[in-house]
């Protein structure tokens, strides 16, 4: 029996020894996950876990490690042992039955260099149950892989213990299950959008995906104009409904080869340069380009979308994000009750730091009092304002 292809989703994430996240587990993650809490609670640290893994798979573990100032700034204060991440998700090969998959990565440091002390990829052997099989198991650059054609294990050795076996072997078609994970993680998009960067005038040339800061926004508009005009028109239609006076957005190549972004207001005959457009309009355009990507990212991370956006636009943005969560898993961190009002209890997690300085998390749907009030018509943002969301308010810290 054929099975419809379902987007891969992280079902569970466990983080150990990563900054304030000494031991935190997110279970039964929804397609849309929203994280709220006071300043300094650890929201950005959770976001950075995704960034760390993405950087490690795309730029290399050493670069990701060094970018965060190595073990002294990465490992939880007062802790010993490796920094560990464990992902559980469901995946299938060639349209087969989806299987529960576990990926575990443990990293430590020796002589200032990161070392992969453990890396393991396991697939269950039957739908929903069955004994896990080690597809890949490495320690300190050496390990074994399971050959799916012969059913035999093969010993492998990497060139260096700071290399990720999944990243290296996932480039080969002979390791399809490893490739699925590598493609999944390298397909993430994590947004650190800066409105100032979206006003950039870059060198002309199409770009398929928006950069993390949005500094190539004109290039992505150019790419969509040339390759996906219908999708670009769809983005413009959505934007025009949210910003009624905006008629169209266009990119223009200058004589010196740079690319200019221009936006036209309906009442005026000529478009204006993006540098003269409001922060909120540019940021909403950038978010819509990410959310309406013709080849959607496997995971989308958005940090504090409320910045530079009018509060009335936040419920609208939440609606757009919910629609895209049917094809991409989405993680959002926020301080905005207006945004949280549009979120369901199973999608909302609160985070706070305890007396020991380490963060803990709790899902809103695990609080019976919160569930009872939501069933009576209360919105989660209102409950947050009124102090009913445990650990989400600075007064609770």
TrEMBL record:
Pfam families: AAA_21 (PF13304). Coiled coil: none annotated. GO terms for molecular function: ATP binding; ATP hydrolysis activity. InterPro entries: ATPase_AAA_core, P-loop_NTPase, RecF-like. Residues 32-341 form the ATPase AAA-type core domain. Signal peptide: none annotated. SUPFAM superfamilies: P-loop containing nucleoside triphosphate hydrolases (SSF52540). This is ATPase. It comes from Phytoactinopolyspora halophila. The lineage of its organism: Bacteria, Bacillati, Actinomycetota, Actinomycetes, Jiangellales.
């Amino acid at each position: 029996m054929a099975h419809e292809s379902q987007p891969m989703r992280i079902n569970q994430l466990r983080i150990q020894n990563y900054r304030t996240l000494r031991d935190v587990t997110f279970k039964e993650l929804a397609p849309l996950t929203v994280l709220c809490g006071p300043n300094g609670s650890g929201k950005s640290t959770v976001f950075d876990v995704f960034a760390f893994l993405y950087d490690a798979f795309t730029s290399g573990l050493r670069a990701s490690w060094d970018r965060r100032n190595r073990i002294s700034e990465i490992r939880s204060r007062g802790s010993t042992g490796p920094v560990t991440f464990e992902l559980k998700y469901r995946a299938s090969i060639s349209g087969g039955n989806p299987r529960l998959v576990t990926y575990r990565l443990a990293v430590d440091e020796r002589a200032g260099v990161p070392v992969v002390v453990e890396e393991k990829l396991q697939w269950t052997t039957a739908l929903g149950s069955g004994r896990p099989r080690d597809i890949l198991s490495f320690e300190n650059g050496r390990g074994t892989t399971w050959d799916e054609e012969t059913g035999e294990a093969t010993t492998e050795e990497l060139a260096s213990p700071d290399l990720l076996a999944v990243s290296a072997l996932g480039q080969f078609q002979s390791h399809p299950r490893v490739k699925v994970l590598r493609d999944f993680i390298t397909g993430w998009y994590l947004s650190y959008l800066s409105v100032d960067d979206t006003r950039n005038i870059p060198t002309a040339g199409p770009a398929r995906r928006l950069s993390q800061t949005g500094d190539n926004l004109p290039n992505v508009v150019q790419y969509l104009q040339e390759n996906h005009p219908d999708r670009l028109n769809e983005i413009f239609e959505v934007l025009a409904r949210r910003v009624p006076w905006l008629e169209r957005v266009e990119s223009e190549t200058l004589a010196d080869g740079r690319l200019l972004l221009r936006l036209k207001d309906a009442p005026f005959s000529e478009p204006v340069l993006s540098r003269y457009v409001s922060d909120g309009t540019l940021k909403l355009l950038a978010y819509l380009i990410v959310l309406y990507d013709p080849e959607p990212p496997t995971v989308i991370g958005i940090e504090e979308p409320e910045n530079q956006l009018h509060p009335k636009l936040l419920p609208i943005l939440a609606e757009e994000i919910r629609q895209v969560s049917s094809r991409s898993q989405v993680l959002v961190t926020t301080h905005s009750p207006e945004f949280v009002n549009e979120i369901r209890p199973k999608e909302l997690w609160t985070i706070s730091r305890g007396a020991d300085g380490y963060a803990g998390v709790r899902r809103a749907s695990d609080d019976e009092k919160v569930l009872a009030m939501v069933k009576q018509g209360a919105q989660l943002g209102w409950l947050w304002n009124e102090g009913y969301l445990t650990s989400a308010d600075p007064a609770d810290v």
